[in-house]
Amino acid sequence: LVQCYAAWCPACKASMPQFHSTAERLKESDDVEVGAINCERPGNKQICSDWLSVDAYPSLLLLNRRHGTLARYPSADSKAAEEVARWALATAREWRSLFTTAANVAHLDAEGFGERVLDDARRAWVVLFSDGLACAPCRTARTNLLRLSASLAGLPVGLGIVDCEEPSNGAFCREEHGMPERPHGPAFLAWPRGLKRRGGSTRGEA
């Protein structure tokens, strides 16, 4: 759980006592660690703007480094320590459950995509084309991909992700699957069961 703040921000200063109380409530938790980042400090601005898409202070985010998931605490909700801690723990519990399905999400690239996805006639496929794996919209899309994996467990549907930031995937993403020039938002493409090379995909924004 990370609070993103700016030292000059009056609302940030006012929220710090509640944030410290939240940290106190979570200190015994094995699921949630707590920290804060001054987004105005040199070296932190890019993290807050490019990686986390922070557009208001203070902002509360829950992150998982290993799986790349991200959730934002609703800005209109109560910042009371009890409420924030309850949200963080509930979200962490959901993620723990989702992470059990993470192995079902294939990491795809240009070289193996055709054989893995397009030649798989027995399954439909949903693939996330992500402009890197660190940006905030990308993290949110990865979180949603894990939710989709959990909801489709046991069904004949393959799930995958392509990192369009990888140089070897750049032309593949743009020329073969219609992704715009970088930077671009994440997008989902879906293929039905059956022979996929003859038909196109269905696109949806992440």
From TrEMBL:
Full protein name: Thioredoxin domain-containing protein
PANTHER family hit by this protein: PROTEIN DISULFIDE-ISOMERASE C17H9.14C-RELATED, THIOREDOXIN DOMAIN-CONTAINING PROTEIN 5
Gene3D superfamilies: Glutaredoxin (3.40.30.10)
A cellular component term, taken from the record's GO annotations: endoplasmic reticulum
GO molecular function, one term: protein disulfide isomerase activity
InterPro entries listed in its UniProt record: PDI (IPR051063), Thioredoxin-like_sf (IPR036249), Thioredoxin_CS (IPR017937), Thioredoxin_domain (IPR013766)
Keyword presence, Iron-sulfur: no
CDD domains: PDI_a_family (cd02961)
One GO biological process term: protein folding
